[in-house]
Amino acid sequence: MEQSQNLSVQKPKVQSPRLRMLKTMLERLLQNKLAVFGGFVTFLLIFTAIFAPWLAPHDPTEQNYSAVLQAPSIEYWFGTDNLGRDIFSRVIYGAQVSLQAGLISVGIALIIGVPVGLISGYYRGFIDEYIIMRMTDAMLSIPALVLALALAAVLGAGLTNAMIAIGLVLTPNFVRLIRGEVLAHREKEYVEAGKASGISDFSIILKHILPNTIAPIMVQATLAIAAAIIVEASLSYLGLGTQPPNPSWGSMLATGQGYLDSAPWIALFPGALIFITVISINLFGDGIRDMLDPKMK
Fold this sequence. Notes:
about 0% strand, about 300 residues, single chain, mainly alpha
């Protein structure tokens, strides 16, 4: 007697186009070794900033006059400064300041730059050509550090005012970028079809044009974070950023400037971390740009 077996034929799973696209983009990013390294260092910085209270072995503001200008050792991994404060702990807490300055400054630039860029690119006219773009060109003609220094001097010393100044300095870059993206999309068929269907301009901008500008905004925002960290360190170095005794990589550089011969570690470690952090974020941003670039598909 023959036994009949019902063989169930399994259909191969078909991935959705969106899932395939995300998988391809992730594979492209992982193929870029420099971008992977930059991303690893960037997320290590974020981890360090979040868990600074548990990672720092000493209070970053505690002064110990019996341990002034001690060289790196088992107890003080990065040595101590002129007031006996542990440099390793101050560097860890300085990561909080740098990350905060980068994210909040770029957030301010996005909050102002995205709406202005969208409106400027979509509604071309007198306001766009002779007011918004002329103000943007004027701000871009001034070096970012000089403009941030002037704004911080007007607003006053302090991390909050420094972040506001940096955010205002970064805003013209986002305005020009988003305006260019909107100009490239406003004449396309799907926008013309939306207008013909009676869809409001607000819906066209928010639901159709804005999603197509997310990729360049992400890339620009990543690179702007690195620029914000440099400007914040520069303002703190000049006394207009983070105020003592709170640790900042820039203010630590300013302190170590007078001890380059006798205690070079005071300036060496914060300077090295500024360099490594900015390079890593730029490498990661370049990797994101290559991942999202349609020409790479």
